[in-house]
Amino acid sequence: MTGLTAEHVVDGRTPQTPALAPDGRRVAYVLAPASRRGGHANTEVWLLDGTARRITADTATESQPRWSADALFFLSDRAHRGRPQLHRFTAGTVTAVTSWGAGILDHLPLADPDLVALLAEDEPTERPGDVIVVGEREPRARLRLLDLRTNRITTPDVFPDRHVVGLRQRPDGGPLAVLTQASADYDYGPRTGRLHLFDPVTGVAEELGPVGADAHSLAWWPAEDGWHIGYVALTPPVLHAGTAVFDLSLTSGSRTNRTAGLPMCPTELCQTGTAPLLLCADGLTTVVSRLDPAGLTTLLHHPGRLDALTATPDGARIAVLATTRYRLADVHLGPPTGPLDRVTDTHPELNGIPLGTQQPLTYHAADGLALDGLLVLPPGHTAADGPFPLVTIAHGGPYDRYADHLQLSWAPSAQWLATAGHAVFLPNPRGGKGHGHDFAARVAGRVGQEEWTDILTGIDLLVTRGIADPDRLGIAGWSHGGFLAAWAVGQTGRFRAALVGAGVTDWGMLAATGENGQFEAALGGSTGWSGPGPHPHDAVSPISFAGRIRTPVLILHGADDPNVPLGQAVYLHRALRHFGAEHEFVIYPREGHRIQERHHQLDLLHRTRAWFDRWLRS
């Protein structure tokens, strides 16, 4: 029996975006590698109809499988890498049906079997020189219609100067609900959403008004007073967290927050012919519910995480990506009330490999707030074998969570460190999802405050129980988790080692340069243009406390990260160098916020283990 290796992590493949056929018997899905070799991610579309088989043989990036009544459509850039086109699979044959110069961004087969709605930017034109004028000629996805009888694409004259981000047709084949934004810019666009109707027969569009920030996941359903449209969006006025399901009655025009006060967090709506289905993050678990007129009806409680929900038109069967405590994601199929049967086995390389023992952890914060998280112990060990060296890994977001599923990835992950002999604490402090809107909204302008004491309380609990060795504590995280790791070592000397991955060190600079600037400003509490200062964001930025850091710090960052730009890591590196603090600074060329190239993932995994082994083993 072999142990877990870095190659097990980076050479695996993961299913994505399952699409359940209307007959409920066939499921298409994308199979994606965990790492990338070369400049493109080579993914595959697979079809499960009794047995799983790949339906193409090309080297390409393939994505977004969607069914019409009698065919499967998907995107593939097999003809021109980086410019996906729409393809149709029927009767065992794959045919390209578009050759749009800018490529196709998204698609939706319509009730009319001869029509497909497309999202695509305008065809490329010659540009004078390479000068970029911000605000001019910005790429925007526009709604287009493909006639399969002629393969001709037309562009309705609707939603001028808007960027289309979502489509859903009424279940009876009527109009489309369309979500648009003022821009494709991540900082500005998600705050400018509007909802529209579009009739593909008449070409007439209707304005339905603004929607909440980051609106997505459209769904229609019939009610006694006529048709309703729902979507998931951030709950005003909080800009960074707290999602809800919003319900628009087309008859009365009234808008309702259907999940107000819910102690869970909606993540996805799934349209059926009647009441839509809803996924909710519920603590460490996931709930499948039905959005009935009287409220939510719980159908299934999954002890782990569910994503990418798809259903038959009658809602009688669903397909979903499900993860459990000791299994990575696989496609599961069944009724929405369960049981859900695993119908793929995409991670055979992990079969028989000893994994760390994972268990839920519940406790209360200093102010009495109920909290949860996970504890992962080295394989074959129990808490009675402690105390262990303990690495705490804070999650990103902060509007994210640890669910009770297998914690194994290229980023600092519990199983990777547990199989090296470390105990790992995965806390879910306030600010994350899984406990309702109020829980999520508690960190606005207060990052690093109560959320940090929530984490410390959990660490103290593990020390008190004899699980964690107080003299061998480490802290790590990626993105917002990287911020918390950088914050931790500026607040206390308790940690013997830290890993700051793609971490925030200055909230003001992030609001000015990150792709989600205004969302970051809501977290940090201010921007650099909020007057001469002092600014609230300075008091919650790790860089302000760099002079206190005595803990050895490993800084890891992608060179081309648009979310948390490299300058954040450079700032921390220069400060630590100035103060003479021991640290190591690693930059991964060509990488964004997620590290994707295989040799970079391998380096990160080996470097992570070596760092904590070095400082926590002695």
What can you tell me about this protein's structure?
It is a single chain. With 618 residues, this protein is an alpha+beta fold. Helix content is 15%, strand content 36%. It has an eight-stranded mixed β-sheet, sandwiched between helices. Strand 26 and strand 27 form a beta hairpin.
Task: Sum up the structure in keywords.
36 strands; Rossmann fold; serine protease; 618 residues; alpha+beta; Peptidase_S9_cat
Sequence stretches where pLDDT stays below 50 over 5 or more residues: none
What characterizes the major β-sheet?
A: 8 strands, mixed
Q: What share of the residues lie within helices?
A: 10-25%
Instruction: Kindly report the spatial arrangement of strands forming the biggest sheet.
Output: 29-30-32-31-33-34-35-36
End-to-end distance, in Å?
Answer: 28 Å
The CATH topology of the domain at 354-616 comes to: Rossmann fold
Radius of gyration from the alpha-carbon trace, in angstroms: 24 Å
**Level-1 CATH class name of the domain at 354-616:** Alpha Beta
Corresponding CATH architecture of the domain at 354-616: 3-Layer(aba) Sandwich
Region (Disordered): 1-21
Protein name: Peptidase S9 prolyl oligopeptidase catalytic domain-containing protein
Domain Peptidase S9 prolyl oligopeptidase catalytic: 413-617
Keywords: Hydrolase, Protease, Serine protease
